[in-house]
Amino acid sequence: LSEALIASVKTAPEEFSVVYQPQYHLATGEVAVVEALLRWNHPEFGPVSPGDFVAIAEQRGHIHELTEHLVRCVLADLSDKTARLPEGLGLAINISARQITDSRLEALLTPLFERIRGVGWVPEIEITETHLMNLSRQCLNRLQEFGEQGVVVAIDDFGTGYSSLAYLHALPVQVLKIDRQFIWRLGGKSRDSRIVSAILGIAEALDLEVVAEGIETEEQHNKLRELNCHRGQGFLMARPAPWQELIPLFFDRN
Ligand code: G
Ligand code: G
Ligand code: NA
Ligand code: MN
């Protein structure tokens, strides 16, 4: 798989595409943010999960090229049908923590951020917290720069990594995205809401916004609304879908 990925990254960019999954304001049911997610469809292996290929690309030093594909796809989608977009949504992309200090990142993302602002939207980056462990000064500075450019920084899969309260405070982060394992515990047998409540408490103290990911049932959705969680994302509301399928969702209440 590793060799196939590297070959495809270099010679078959058409095998990569982007789907989008909305995050909703839980209080109103309106779309708040759309998250861009990479897909790889290999002619022989079929669809490969980014959970698998992103890790390989990181290990083999090709994550920058994958992000280039992503940026190209998102730019193409944004230049299409812009007239029908609502104002003020966020557009989130996933960035590997290792990429944060890559000197090529700024030149790659600046035109994307400009295009996002150009349609009246707000750029957002999601960074998985496991990798934030070894926070270099350089990494912190880069996040700070993004923040100063009006880019919203979110910590993805929050609760599974090593974020300490000390650096949540120090980081220019505005959003915590609670890992889906904690959301799943809100439903079914366990109905355990203690971790989600605790994260919401931390977020309130630090003035952060919280997104619950992986919402699959009405029970989880209702519980999160009861807890006053800000945003939610999951198969219950919408699955990741190509850009054209997304547009009608903007004008729908869920
Ligand atoms: O889309 P899916 O749930 O299969 O994604 C699995 C994981 O892959 C998620 O954690 C997601 O953040 C990550 N991922 C998806 N697209 C990208 C991308 O463009 N860049 C990076 N670094 N990670 C991505
Ligand atoms: O780690 P990250 O938040 O980037 O992961 C996004 C991934 O989560 C996407 O690949 C998407 O397919 C997946 N996802 C989104 N909503 C749900 C859900 O309700 N259930 C499950 N199992 N996966 C989801
Ligand atoms: Na994400
Ligand atoms: Mn996540």
Automatic annotation (TrEMBL):
Domain EAL: 1-254
Protein name: GGDEF domain-containing protein
Organism whose genome encodes this protein: Marinobacter salsuginis
